[in-house]
Description:
Blueprint: H1 2-25, H2 35-52, H3 58-111, H4 119-141, H5 145-165, H6 170-182, H7 186-200, H8 203-214, H9 226-238, H10 243-255, H11 259-272, H12 279-290, H13 292-298
Amino acid sequence: xxxxxxxxxxxxxxSTAAIAWPLVFAKPAGGASADxxxxxxxxLAEIERDRDYGLIDEASAEDAMKEASxxxxxxxxxxxQAGKAGRxxxxxxxxxxxxxxxxxxxxxxxxxxxxxxxxxxxxAASTQAEQRATENAAAIAAMAPAERAAIIERMVAxxxxxxxxxxxxxxxxxxxxxxxAALGNFAQSTDAWREAASxxxxxxxxxxxxxxxxxxxxxxxxxxxxxxxxxxxxxLAGNENDPLALYFLGHAAAxxxxxxxxxxxxxxxxxxxxxxxxxxxxxxxxxxxxRPQDDAQDQP
Length: 300
């Protein structure tokens, strides 16, 4: 955190100085030029010539000379006064620029996340969040069933509304899928896992989608539709020994009349199971049912 603060402070001071320096120390525009004295001398010479030629009298010539001298003095004072006023405005602007980083720092400390600048701060924030979640869960568990169900449904509805606006939040879709399943809304849970799996393509999301597609059916219902088959094939492509994919792709092959392929899947699954697996007898029965002609050939 200290290193971050030092770098941020250095960059802030450097950028502020780069902006404020030309504002404060810039030379004022205009100012007296070397031509001012020559211009006055030329005007006075012109007045004297007019007097010598008799175009103006002596009194008029003196008045004209005074006016020319006064005008020349005023012209010299105007740039200097404008420069002082401009310098004051530039100084005020520099002060405003210098105050902006300080104000931003205080604003960040007030509404930002300064704790995230250090590992200890992040761990403390995570611990506090877990404690709040635990307290909220305990408070919800202590409510009456109807009240608890209403609160959970509102929370799930709020999550669904947020995901409609932010559909790329994969973690949000996962949470929504689990939440709908907990409420017994299996169709909506399946929709949520479709969103999660389509966005991540990860094996766990595909497995959750397959489980959602299988939910709500009887234990003996092993029918595999086109969507479930595609999900299982994607699982098997990532892991050739995936047990869920091997088991139900065997059923998919059997229902398509491909007994040899079904046996291949189930045999591979059986070989990957521990010897005492409760699924082994079931697989033996499926393999035997898929190849009754083999059993007949083995009989004397």
